[in-house]
Amino acid sequence: MGIFKEPHHTEGRQRVDIADGRPGVPLQLRITVLSAGQGVPIQGAEVDVWHCDALGYWSAGGKDLLLNVQPMMPGQRLIITRHRLRVVGTSSAMTQRTDTPPSWDERTQLATFLDYARDTARAKCEGVSEEDARKAPLPNSPLMTICGLISHLRWVEHHWVQVMYLGEEPEGPLTAATDDDPDPEMRTAVDIPLPQLLAEYEEQSARYRRLMADRDLSSKAKRPIGDGRHVDLRWVILHLIEETSRHNGHLDVVRELVDGQTGV
Q1: Residues of 122-141 as b/e, b for ≥16 C-beta within 10 angstroms?
Q2: 3-state secondary structure string across 111-162
């Protein structure tokens, strides 16, 4: 960690029109704190965020430093004004999502839509009780639970990224799949707490996000699909967007049936 002299603006660029009460540029921060040992998200971690003034100096020469130490829970938003940052909205149903990419190149657009679908799946789980997350309200779909769907999304990504694209061996419940039990990840998910399923899904999403950012979209999968062809990474991402979006519809229906929650 380096120590830098003030001011903290670059190349002489300064914003001089900032004043209390004047709208600024919206800034969305997505902060995930990972454990050093296992690399999994830590729930309720405390985060410090420091902010400079318009000239690149710490506010009031250090007397009005922004030092925010609060538990950062899922669903909270950080709002930065001139010299302040505040946490607003502690409701659990506030996952921030966007389907608008920061740039218009193909990779960024694909990544943005996949993250949007993932975030939508997580948003549809917010506020549901552990009991309701294990209920299967559709009479002809006994595996269709909220826990089961989140687990399925996690292991579908594992299958397409690690098994098909990277050529690795299946892991976890996928190793137990048979013709009579084709979806063991959905069957066994009701024995796992929903927060754990969501944390594992988020951790894996972060790893795959980094992996996809470093690979050529036209690079071919190591394993072939059923007709013998090798799909490319572009197809894998598009398929995961389609798969996740389709199951978000299932989450919609199941959530409304188990506790009446709609409109997520």
Answers
A1: bbbbbebeeebbbbbeeeee
A2: HHHHHHHHHHHHHCCCCCCHHHHCCCCCCCCCCCCHHHHHHHHHHHHHHHHH
Residue type, 255: R
Q: Which two tokens stand for residue 119?
A: 């975030």
H or E element: which one contains 236? Answer: helix 233-259
Residue 226 CA neighbour count, 13 Å, CB half: 0
Tokens describing residue 244: 């996740």
SS3 33: coil
Q: Is the pTM of this model over 0.85?
A: no
| 102-120: pLDDT as tens digits | 999 999 999 999 999 999 9
Residue type for 225, please?
A: I
* 80-83-84 Cα angle (round to 5): 50
Length of the chain: 264
Q: Which of helix, strand or coil describes residue 3?
A: coil
Q: Which two tokens stand for residue 98?
A: 């966007």
Tokens for 259, please give them: 């506790």
